[in-house]
């Protein structure tokens, strides 16, 4: 979140309103009854000192593997309303989030990855499933399979 200016670059803190919004989002995704859902955020948890930050980043892999859910909070994505899985995948593909190297770990290692869009929080597995089930994807897949048969059996 620091790169998007949502975090504090001189201290490990966020405004109360941002922390409250993150807590509500975590509670919404992981219903723990009346108990608040614990969450980890790089802005608050990663040290500024180079050596300490390097050590902490080496443990990020473990945090992603153990997380119940991971939420992509990218301002460009959370300011866009999406209407279809194809729309969501397009915006995710060209987002700042996927342009940073550590997000590959986040995406691959997180069991349940969610994306915060303006109009919804959507699980990546659900986006991909809906895309695969969509008529445009099925039509493309059918045409591609037919094309391969023609090529292979001339």
Question: How does this model look, in words?
Answer:
The protein is mostly helical. It has one domain. Helix content is 55%, strand content 6%. It has 9 helices and 3 strands. A hairpin with a 4-residue loop joins β2 and β3.
Global structural class: mainly alpha
Q: How much beta, percentage-wise?
A: 5-15%
What number is the mean pLDDT? Answer: 78
Number of domains: 1
Through-space gap between termini: 53 Å
Low-confidence residue ranges: none
User: Biggest sheet, in brief?
Assistant: 3 strands, mixed
Shape: globular
How are the strands of the largest sheet arranged? 1-2-3
Number of helices: 9
How do the SSEs run, as a string of H and E? HHHHEHHHEEHH
The amount of helix comes to: 40-55%
- Radius of gyration, taken over Cα atoms and rounded to an integer in Å: 19 Å
The strand count comes to 3
Helix and strand topology:
Elements: H1 16-29, H2 42-45, H3 50-58, H4 60-66, E1 70-72, H5 75-78, H6 85-93, H7 102-109, E2 113-116, E3 121-123, H8 124-133, H9 135-153
Parallel strand pairs: 1-2
Antiparallel strand pairs: 2-3
Characteristic key phrases:
globular; mainly alpha; three-stranded mixed sheet; single chain; 9 helices; about 150 residues
């Amino acid at each position: 979140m620091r790169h998007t200016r949502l975090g504090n670059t001189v201290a490990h803190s966020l405004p109360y309103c941002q922390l409250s919004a993150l807590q509500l989002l975590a509670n919404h995704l992981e219903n723990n009854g009346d108990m608040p859902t614990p969450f980890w955020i790089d802005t608050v948890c990663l040290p500024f000192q180079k050596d300490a930050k390097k050590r902490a980043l080496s443990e990020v892999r473990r945090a992603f593997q153990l997380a119940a859910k991971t939420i992509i909070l990218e301002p460009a994505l959370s300011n866009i309303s999406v209407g279809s899985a194809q729309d969501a995948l397009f915006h995710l593909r060209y987002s700042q989030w996927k342009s940073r190297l550590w997000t590959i770990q986040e995406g691959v290692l997180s069991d349940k990855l969610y994306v915060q869009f303006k109009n919804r929080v959507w699980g990546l597995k659900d986006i991909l499933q809906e895309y695969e089930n969509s008529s445009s994807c099925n039509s493309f897949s059918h045409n591609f399979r037919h094309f391969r048969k023609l090529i292979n059996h001339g």
